[in-house]
């Protein structure tokens, strides 16, 4: 077995559906990360699945490898590849000498089953720490499955979606944004001289190269970034590095007041004591996103809210004891 077959990652990340994302925030797909165990594995507290004879793809002593095992392995491989930004290509059903194929997948599952059987024979399933780890993984997996099951059962009506949209329209606004070149000089006299050159048609970047104390502000990559008003960035793009703001309200007003592409502002003194001149490269007008465009986001958000209510109901009915003083002894 070559190195290409030895590098399979067997533990997939188990990700719980997490905190509520506001529906106008950047959506993130919840990772689906199943864990597979061949049908012959000892599963603590869980009955072994029945495997039809026609679904057995391999036998290892008294254990079997099923089609479902292969599917789960493929899900892990696909998730890992897509998480790395690579495109998933289905595995070939034919033997491939230089590529990982379905036969390699089955062979890796056989290797896993051999190790599993030897682990059981050596009593590893009776190891207290291993049982605790297994219980932790099983709890997480079943909680994830519960969320997926409940998520599909929670109903959200069109009326609820419309009501949420009407009450939160501000959150579905796409604010105006611009791309700018910026020229910075140290005195008003310099600013006047520079502005004359620009109004006479001299290239903005060349003038900035000659006169600006910050010539990089007139060129890429800074000029390629979208600029939002500071208040809008704080709400709609607080962690988006591809969007910036000017932070100075005087500069912001001057920049957003330019009325045409390639137009320039007058010079304006900033809080830094320098005079600034802007050139507008591109403007993306603000708009209100229509309900039809955001309804799916709202539906999922309301479903998560209702799921939280279901969870709180379980918490209310349960008898929960906490021992906060014991957390201090947790290893980190």
Helix and strand composition category: alpha+beta
Number of domains: 3
Backbone shape: elongated
Q: Order of strands across the biggest sheet?
A: 6-5-4-8-7
Distance between the termini: 38 Å
Characterise the protein shown here:
The strands form three sheets. The chain has a five-stranded mixed β-sheet. It has a two-stranded antiparallel ribbon with strand order 1-2. It has a two-stranded antiparallel sheet with strand order 3-9. The chain contains ten helices and nine strands. Helix 2 (67-83) packs across helix 3 and helix 5 packs across helix 10. It folds into three domains: 3-133, no CATH class; 159-168 and 289-329, no CATH class; 176-285, Chitinase A, domain 3 (Roll). Helix content is 42%, strand content 12%. Strand 7 and strand 8 (275-284) form a beta hairpin. The longest helix has 27 residues, at 291-317. The chain starts with a helix and ends in a 15-residue tail after the last helix.
Topology diagram in text:
Blueprint: H1 3-6, E1 56-60, E2 63-66, H2 67-83, H3 102-121, H4 128-153, H5 158-167, E3 173-174, E4 177-185, H6 188-199, H7 204-211, E5 226-228, H8 230-236, E6 243-244, H9 249-256, E7 268-269, E8 275-284, E9 287-288, H10 291-317
Parallel strand pairs: 5-6
Antiparallel strand pairs: 1-2, 3-9, 4-5, 4-8, 7-8
């Amino acid at each position: 077995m070559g190195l290409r077959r030895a590098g399979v990652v067997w533990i997939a990340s188990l990700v719980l559906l997490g905190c509520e994302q506001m529906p106008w925030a950047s959506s993130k797909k919840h990772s689906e990360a199943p864990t597979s165990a061949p049908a012959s594995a000892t599963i603590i507290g869980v009955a072994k699945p029945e495997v039809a004879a026609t679904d057995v793809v391999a036998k290892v002593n008294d254990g079997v490898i099923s089609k479902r095992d292969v599917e789960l392995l493929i899900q892990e491989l696909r998730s890992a590849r897509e998480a790395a930004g690579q495109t998933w290509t289905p595995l070939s059903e034919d033997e491939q000498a230089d590529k990982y194929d379905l036969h390699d997948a089955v062979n890796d599952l056989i290797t896993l089953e051999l190790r599993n059987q030897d682990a059981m024979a050596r009593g590893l399933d009776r190891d207290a720490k291993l049982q605790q780890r297994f219980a932790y993984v099983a709890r997480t997996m079943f909680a994830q499955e519960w969320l997926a099951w409940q998520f599909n059962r929670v109903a959200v009506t069109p009326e609820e979606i419309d009501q949420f949209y009407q009450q939160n329209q501000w959150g579905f606004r796409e604010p105006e944004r611009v791309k700018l070149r910026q020229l910075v000089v140290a005195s008003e006299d310099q600013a006047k001289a520079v502005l004359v050159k620009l109004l006479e048609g001299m290239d903005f970047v060349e003038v900035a190269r000659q006169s600006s104390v910050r010539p990089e502000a007139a060129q890429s990559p800074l000029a390629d970034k979208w600029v939002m008003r500071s208040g809008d960035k704080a709400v709609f793009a607080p962690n988006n590095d591809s969007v910036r703001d000017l932070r100075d309200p005087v500069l912001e007003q001057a920049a957003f007041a330019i009325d045409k592409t390639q137009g320039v502002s007058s010079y304006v003194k900033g809080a830094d004591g320098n005079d600034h001149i802007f050139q507008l490269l591109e403007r993306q007008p603000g708009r209100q996103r229509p309900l039809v465009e955001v309804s799916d986001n709202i539906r999922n958000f309301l479903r998560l809210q209702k799921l939280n209510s279901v969870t709180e109901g379980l918490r209310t009915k349960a008898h929960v004891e906490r021992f906060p003083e014991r957390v201090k002894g947790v290893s980190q």
